[in-house]
Amino acid sequence: MNVGVIGLGSMGKRRIRLIKSNFPDVNVIGIDNSDERCREVQDLFSIKTLNDSIEFFKNNDCEAVFISTPPLTHSKIINDALNANLNIFTEINLVKDLYDENIKMANEKNLTLFLSSTQLYRKEIRYIDSKISKLNKTTNYIYHIGNYLPDWHPWESYKNFFVGNKKTNGCREILTIELPWIVKTFGEIKQIHVSKNKITHLDIDYPDSFFINITHKNGSNGVLIIDLVSRKAVRNLEIINENCYIQWDGTPDGLEEFNIDSGEMEKINLYEKISNEQDYNQTIIENAYLEEIIDFFNVLNSNKNHGVYSFEKDKYVIDAIDIIEETDDKQSYIF
Predict the structure, then answer these.
(1) Within this chain, do residues 274 and 226 fall inside the same structural domain, yes or no?
(2) With CB atoms 3.0 to 4.6 Å apart as the test, which of 20, 87, 193, 200 could cross-link to 112 if both were Cys?
């Protein structure tokens, strides 16, 4: 199989590295309008690169393309790729531009439109989802995700990174990563209450902290705290039910469950081997990124339209995020 990877920044390089390391029969072509990035990727992975996506779409022998460019560019590139009869793997979009048009075209052409949602592939999330599903009872949770924005990509200014843009801001990205699994596990949203503020001196024109109370249609309640302030990168989750107590610090060995019989917390070990990159904090591991690539190739082989997540599901999540951002501070919204 021949595949293209458009966008040779940190995520594009991650996708190429994982494909090259795990799929020796897949030939990869890198595409980026930066000559410097093209040369870097050529040196790192010994693959062919192009600096013109239009040329790639006109003259390619690929079956699929990975889109790893900044989110606001995705919709047009997806549209161009579908017109070039390519199956698509795209990173999170953050906005729903051209969703209806691209979904319709993919269905008409019987092409795969695969949307990344990496948390759905985390073993810890899958364990939690399975546990809550078996309980089949109202369950509450408290979830705090915080990380100081300049530390996200320490090799570049956050002003040059898409999270500096209000339309694709850092809080919005965190919500886009986390809400898919929260909605899947705890159910559709009935009501939200939002409080937000800005407490840093960062040069951004959006709130750096969100406090969101979520009521789900099944009666479960959640407190979701998102911030770009915490100097220590944190991901702290507590799940509370009369028959279950789970906590997770976001790391592969940080999932624990309370044993009611022994009265003690017990570690839940889910990994035989953990893969990560030194430039990222310990809560970010490579395993789930590889799992969704494997799923994408399996979807292609089975002629399906999408994996565990879809553009249709993402529309619901992005609509919810729009409401969270647009709801006045300390106001409620009923879905």
Answers:
(1) yes
(2) 87
Instruction: Tell me, yes or no, whether 135 and 270 share the same domain.
Output: yes
Q: Decide if 303 is inside a domain.
A: no
Burial letters 216-232, b for 16+ CB under 10 A, else e: beeebbbebbbbbbeee
Contact between 180 and 317 (Cβ < 8 Å): yes
65, 87 contact by CB (below 8 A): yes
Check whether residue 249 and residue 183 sit in a common domain: yes
CATH number, position 80:
3.40.50.720
In a shared domain, residues 185 and 329: yes
pLDDT, one tens digit per residue, over 223-273 is 999 999 999 999 999 999 999 999 999 999 999 999 999 999 999 999 988
For residue 132, the cross-strand partners are none
Can you give the length of the chain in residues? 335
- pLDDT > 90: percent of the chain: 90
pTM assigned to the model:
0.93
Three-state DSSP class for residue 120: helix
What is the gyration radius of the CA atoms in the chain, in angstroms? 20
Name the token pair of 112.
């795969």
Token pair, residue 247, equals 């906590």
Residue 29 and residue 102: Cα distance in Å, rounded? Answer: 23
Cα separation, 55 vs 18, in Å, equals: 25
Could you tell me the CATH number of the domain that includes residue 150? 3.30.360.10
Q: How many domains does the chain have?
A: 2
142 and 240 share one domain: yes
Quick check: is 328 in a domain? yes
What is the DSSP secondary-structure string of 190-239?
A: EEEEEEEE--S--S-SS-SEEEEEEEETTS-EEEEEEES--SS-EEEEEE
Task: Answer yes or no: are the C-beta atoms of 175 and 323 closer than 8 Å.
Answer: no
DSSP assignment of 25-57: T-EEEEE-S-HHHHHHHHHHH--EEES-HHHHH
